[in-house]
Amino acid sequence: MTERTPDANTVDNSKQSPSRISFIALVRRELRALWHDPWQLALVSYIPLLGIFCLWWLFSAGLPRQLPVAIVDQDHSQLSRMLTRQLKANPVTEPQNFTDLTAAVTAMKQAKVYAIVVFPYDMKKDLLTGHKPTIDVRYNSQFLLVGKLLSSQIQLSLGEGLLHVAGLKQLASGTPKSQVAVNLSPVKSQTTALFNRNNNYIGFLVPPVLVALWQLLSMLVMANSLNRELHLNPMNIDSDTYHDVSNVLTVAFWPKVLAKMVLFTPILMLQGGFILVWLYLYLGLPVAGSLASLLLAQSVMLLAVWSLVLLVFVVMRDSARVISFCTALFAPAFAFMGITFPTHEMPQLAQWWRLIMPSSHYIESHVSVVSYGAALPSVVSQLCSYWGFLCLLPVIYFLSRKLLPITVNATSAVTAYDSDATQPAKGQ
Amino acid sequence: MWQLIMTELKAIISDKAIAVTLFGGVLFYSVLYPLPYLHQVPTEQQLIVVDLDHSSLSRQLIRHADASAKIQVIGQVGSIAEAKRYIQTRKAHGLLVIPEGFRRDLLLGKGVTLSYGGDASYFLIYSAVAEGLVSAGMDAGKQVQLIGMLAQGQNPKQAQQSLNSIHLNSVPAFNPSLGYTPYVVPGLFLLILHQTLLIGTGILGAGQWRQRGYWQQVSPVQLIGGRILAFMLIYMFFTSFYVGYCYHWYNVSIQASLGLVALWLLPFLLATAAAGIAMSSLFTRRDLPTQVLLLISMPILFVSGFVWPLALIPEPLVLGSQFIPAVPAIMGMLELNQMGASWASVMPKWLQLWGLFAVFFGLAILGVKRRVRLLKAQVG
Questions:
Q1: Nearest to B298 among A212, A372, A421 (CB)
Q2: Nearest residue on chain A to B332, judged by CA atoms?
Q3: Is the CB of A55 less than 8 angstroms away from the CB of B298?
Q4: In chain A, what residues touch B43 (CB-CB under 8 Å)?
Q5: Chain B CB within 8 Å of residue A110 CB
Q6: What is the mean pLDDT of residues B224-228?
C-alpha cells in the first residue's frame, strides 16, 4: 500500500521517500493529532455517548400510552358512560370530559387532546327505538403517528362496547346465549404483528436513528482528520511531529489515509458495538439473529462512509467546504433509510439517492438480522449491494493523483500566512 | 447602519462556505428532504395468502382483500412457513391465513378466526396491511351474517340495520389525506431554516473573531443589530419561499392568514439569528459550527413534538429544549397554521420567542465584547 510519491509533486521534498516511513509512525502521528484536538476527542468519546443516551431517552416511553382524548357526552346515558369506561380501559387512550364541543375543539387545536369523541344527544333513545345514531370521532392527523394509532384504538374500544350492546339486543329477542357471539361476529380476526410483536417504538425507531447518528459521527471524524492534513504547514516540520513524516499533502497520502483508517476503525466500531450492546443486550430488545454478523455489516458500512468522505475531500480540498458538503450529503440519511416510510413507495429518484447512503444498505442487513434472524451467509450476500462504493475507489485514486498536487502547489506558493479560506486548525 | 448592513451582506455572500450553506442548502433540502415521501400514503402492499379452505367463500375473501386499495395479493402458498419465507425475502409484507373449513363452519353457524400478519419492522406497512385486511374481513363477515339473517326470514332492510346498530363516523382532522408530506414538511422546514441560519451566523462569526476587521470598529450592539438585520433580509426570502411556495407545493394544509404567520415567524427568526451570533462567539474554527449543528439537528427534530408526542417525552428533555428557538416555533406554527388555533392560544409561545430573543441578544453582546477583548489582548 506504500505508494510512490506522485511525480507532479514539485514541493521541495528533502525528506525520505515514503517507503521508508514506517507505518507505525504514521499511526502514532494520527494518535497524536487526535490527542491534541479537543473536538476530535469529543467526537470519539462523550458526544456519541450523550447522543445515544439522549435519543434513546426521548423515545424511552416505547409504547404510546394514555394519550388524552376529549369526550363530549351530550347523551348522559348509561350507554355513553359505558363507552367512556371502555375508552378508559384502553391503555392508549385517556378520556377527558368536556362539557361542550367548542372547548374540546379549542383543546384539540392546541394539541392538548389528540382526538374528540362526541356521543350525540339521545343516542341511547335512538338506539332503542331502532334508529341509527352516529358517534363522531375526529382525530388529529397532523401528528400522523398519534392520529393513526388513536383512530384504530378508539374504533376498537367503541366497537367492543357496541358489540356488547348488540349482544343484549340479541338476547332480548330470544337468541340462545351460545349463539349470540357467533351471530355478532361470525368471522373473528386475529391480527399478529410479526417480528416486533408489541409494536414497540424503541425497537422500531431507535436503531435507525442511532445508526444515522453513528454515520454522522464517522463521517465527521474522518473529514476532520483529512482536513487537518490541509492545514499543516508543509515547509517546516513541527518539532513535535513524529520523526520523518512529511506534512506535505501528497507525500504518502494513501499510507496516511490507511493509518487514519487503522486508528479510527476500532474506535468507531466500539461506538457501533456499544449501540448494539445497549439496545439488544442491556435493554433486551428482541433480536433473532447474531449480533456478530451485524458488526461485520457495520464495518463494511464504515468503509463505505469513508470512501464517500475521501471522494468529497479530494474533490473539494477545503475544510469548511468538505464539512458543508458532507453535511448536506449525510444529514437527510434517516429519511432515506426506508424504516418510517417504506422504500418501495418512494419515487424512483429517492430510491436512487438512497443507494448513495451507506446507512440504507446497512439498515437492510440490520432488519434482516434483528427481525428475520438472517444468518451470516445471507448478510454477506447483502453486503454485495455495496459494489458501487468499490467502483468509487479507482475514481478517488485517479482524482487524488490529479487534484491533490494542485492544492499543494497553491499552498506552497502562498506562504504560511494566508487568506481567510484556510484557518488555523489547531485548538481553539 | 445601512452601510454596516451592506458590509455584512457582502461578507455573507463573498464567503463561499456560508453562501453554499445558505443558498445551496436551503434550495437543496427543500427538494431532498421531502423526496422520499412524495407518494404520501403507502398503498398496494404485497400480501401472500395461505388458503387452507379452497372454497368459494375463501376465494371471495381473497378477491375482496385484493380489491382494497391498501393491499395487493401477490399469490397463494400452501403453508405458513412458506409465507414466512416470502416475508423474510421482502417479496411480501403481510400474510393472510384462511383456516380449513372456513366456509363450512360459517354456514353451520360456528365462529371462525382469520389470522392476519404484517411485518411490524415497518410500522407504516403493518398498519396499511392490517387496515386493509380488517376491512376486507369485516366485509366478508357482514355478508355471511346478512345471508344468515335473510335465511332466518328477516326482512332485508331490518337485517341491514341490526348489523350496524351505531354508525362510527371517524374522520381525520387537519391533515385529511393522512399524507406524509403534510405531516413532515411544516415542522421540518422550520427546522431547516433554523439550522441553516445558525450555521450561517456561526461560520461568519467564527471566521472573523481572529482577524481585525469592520466588526471591531462598531460597538457590539451595533454589530449584532446590523448582522441580525442583514440575515433577516436574506431569510425573509427563504422563509417566504419555504412557508409560501413549498408549503403549497407539498400540499400542506394552511389555516392561518399571511399576516399572522409573518407575525409568528418574526420573533422566531430574530431569536434564531441572535442565538446564532451568541453561539458563534464560542468558535474560532470555521468548520465547527456546522458539525455541532449537524449533530444536534436530529435531537431537535424529535424533541419538538410533532414526530413523537410531547406527552411521552421525558419532562427534563422537554424543559431543556424550550431554550431552542425552533422548539416553541415549530409547535406554535403547527397549532396556528396547520390546526387553526387562535392567536390568543399561541400567545405564550410567541412571548417565549421574544424572551429568547432578548436573552440571546444579551448573550451575543457579552460574547462579542469578549471577542473584542481577546483580540486586543492577542494583538497587544
A1: A212
A2: A110
A3: yes
A4: 345
A5: yes
A6: 90
Q: How far is A89 from chain B (nearest CA, A)?
A: 19
* Mean per-residue pLDDT, A151-167: 81
Q: Kindly provide the residue ranges of all beta strands, DSSP E only, lying in chain B, ordered along the sequence.
A: 45-51, 71-77, 94-98, 112-119, 167-173
Q: Which of A43, A183, A194, A204 to mutate to test the interface with B (most CBs of B within 10 A)?
A: A194
pLDDT at B12 over 50: yes
**Å between A22 CA and nearest CA of chain B:** 31
Q: What's the pLDDT score for residue B195?
A: 92
Q: Is the pTM of this model over 0.90?
A: no
Q: Cβ contact (<8 Å) for B299 and A123? A: no
With cell 487526535, the residue in question is A34
How confident is the model at residue A215, as a pLDDT?
93
**pLDDT given at position A424:** 40
Q: Is the pLDDT of residue B63 over 80?
A: yes
Best probe of the A interface among B166, B331, B338, by most A CBs < 10 A, is B166
Fold of the domain spanning A67-184: abc type-2 transporter like fold (3.40.1710)
Q: Is B80 on the interface with A (CB under 8 A)?
A: no
Give residue for cell 330470544: A174
Does this complex have an ipTM over 0.90?
no
pLDDT tens-place string over residues B70-84: 888 888 888 888 888
pLDDT value at A250 more than 50: yes
Domain parsing of chain A, residue ranges: 18-59+200-413, 67-184
Domains, in order of start, for chain B: 2-37+179-379 (no CATH), 45-163 (3.40.1710.10)
| Closest residue by Cα to residue A422 from A222, A227, A241, A219 | A227
The identity of residue A137, as a single letter, is V
Q: Is the pLDDT of residue B362 over 90?
A: yes
DSSP string, A242-292: -TT----TTTTHHHHHHHHHHHHHHHHHHHHHHHHIIIIIIS-----S-HH
Q: Cα distance from B341 to chain A (closest Cα, Å)?
A: 5
Those residues with Cβ within 8 angstroms of residue A280's Cβ, 6 or more apart along the chain or in another chain: A287, A291, A370
Closest chain B residue to A322, measured at CA: B287
